[in-house]
Amino acid sequence: MALNPEEVSGLRTQRYNATVCKLVKIHSDLMILRVKPDLPLKTHKPGQYTLLGLGNWEPRFPGTQDEIPGSVEESKLARRSYSISSSVLDENNEVGEPQHKEWLEFYIVLVRKTNSDKAPALTPRLFMLREGDRLFMGEKITGAYNLDKVKPEDTVVLLSTGTGEAPHNYMLQQLLFQGHKGMIIAACCVRQKMDLGFLDLHQSLAKKLGNYHYFPLSTRDLDESGRKRYIQDLLKDGDIDKANGEPLNPEKTHVFLCGNPAMIGVPNKDRETGEYTYPPIEGIIEILEKRGFRADRGHQDSGNIHFEEYWS
Ligand SMILES: Cc1cc2nc3c(=O)[nH]c(=O)nc-3n(C[C@H](O)[C@H](O)[C@H](O)COP(=O)(O)OP(=O)(O)OC[C@H]3O[C@@H](n4cnc5c(N)ncnc54)[C@H](O)[C@@H]3O)c2cc1C
């Protein structure tokens, strides 16, 4: 039975612990969201993530896949992980201190439908939010995807698809704020150019800074030579080496991969033999491991390719 307005109001009071303090729609399906928690924010590192959530009782964005009636419990929260993002520059157009104090920023795409009968739970609800609305935000901020292993002279390569750029923008802010000495090369691959929500920012930073290069890629628009290019092509064709001024040196380079698992290409470990096999579609990990890099597989087995997959 559907919840009545009093029940909905009671659940919102009980379950929500944060407020939307800023919301910018880049277009109908892409937004920057700032969320201020009721309690003080915990310290965190650029690259980490937390949870956002809304009740299943909340309305869904028109034109998104319908939930099968009865398939979700209306009184529960839909919760998902989101990388903490950053717009890099503060209100004075300066690179601000990389530690959000009162709110966290997120960069989120609307998932209109999934490949199954199970409709996307959260984003169709997040895209109905307006400034001042309440929602759930996790108190815990977590994740091992961060710049801890990067030394000041290292080359840092930040490769993403879509909103996988979110943690990289915050990491870029940290690097710039710390006056990173090595090259910083970022690339983001999206379907359409309008999905590059931070294009102007990156292009102006690249113009201003001698050690920053940004590659925007959109697979629906061909490049000047009529090619459709993916992140893998930037490595194979030598564009990233060229931007770095010399071939990437595994001894002094850290590569960060975030977003679509097909771009990342995490190898599968055989439980019996312990051997790794790469996925059928060549991902960045395979390309780089053939060049002497090693995927970071956690505490005991750390490498110089760090990754965060947004789904499996
Ligand atoms: C550590 C971590 C950090 C994340 N950070 C972000 C972030 O900063 N911004 C963000 O938009 N998403 C992020 N995600 C994905 C996010 O958690 C949700 O999966 C996504 O918002 C879809 O939620 P949903 O409930 O609407 O759809 P679900 O019911 O969860 O449907 C999932 C399906 O949606 C698709 N999908 C999920 N995420 C994306 C995406 N980002 N772009 C395109 N297709 C996608 C995949 O096909 C996936 O199978 C992150 C995921 C993880 C694990």
The helicity comes to 10-25%
**Integer tally of domains:** 2
Question: In sequence order, what are the helices and strands, one letter per element?
Answer: HEEEEEHEEHEHEHHEHEEHE
Summed up, the helix count is 8
Bound molecules: flavin-adenine dinucleotide
The fraction of residues in strands falls at: 25-35%
3D structure, described in words:
It is a single chain. The chain is α/β, with parallel strands linked by helices. It has two domains: 5-137, Translation factors (Elongation Factor Tu (Ef-tu), domain 3, Beta Barrel); 155-309, Nucleotide-binding domain of ferredoxin-NADP reductase (FNR) module (Rossmann fold). 19% of the residues lie in helices and 25% in strands. It is built from eight helices and 13 strands. It has helices at residues 5-15, 123-126, 165-177, 199-208, 231-236, 239-244, 261-264, 284-289, and strands at residues 18-27, 30-37, 49-55, 77-83, 104-109, 134-137, 155-161, 184-190, 212-218, 253-259, 268-269, 276-277, 305-309. The model has no long low-confidence stretch (mean pLDDT 95). The structure holds flavin-adenine dinucleotide (FAD).
Would you spell out the secondary-structure blueprint of this structure?
Blueprint: H1 5-15, E1 18-27, E2 30-37, E3 49-55, E4 77-83, E5 104-109, H2 123-126, E6 134-137, E7 155-161, H3 165-177, E8 184-190, H4 199-208, E9 212-218, H5 231-236, H6 239-244, E10 253-259, H7 261-264, E11 268-269, E12 276-277, H8 284-289, E13 305-309
Parallel strand pairs: 7-8, 7-10, 8-9, 10-13
Antiparallel strand pairs: 1-2, 1-6, 2-5, 3-4, 3-6, 11-12
Bound molecules: flavin-adenine dinucleotide.
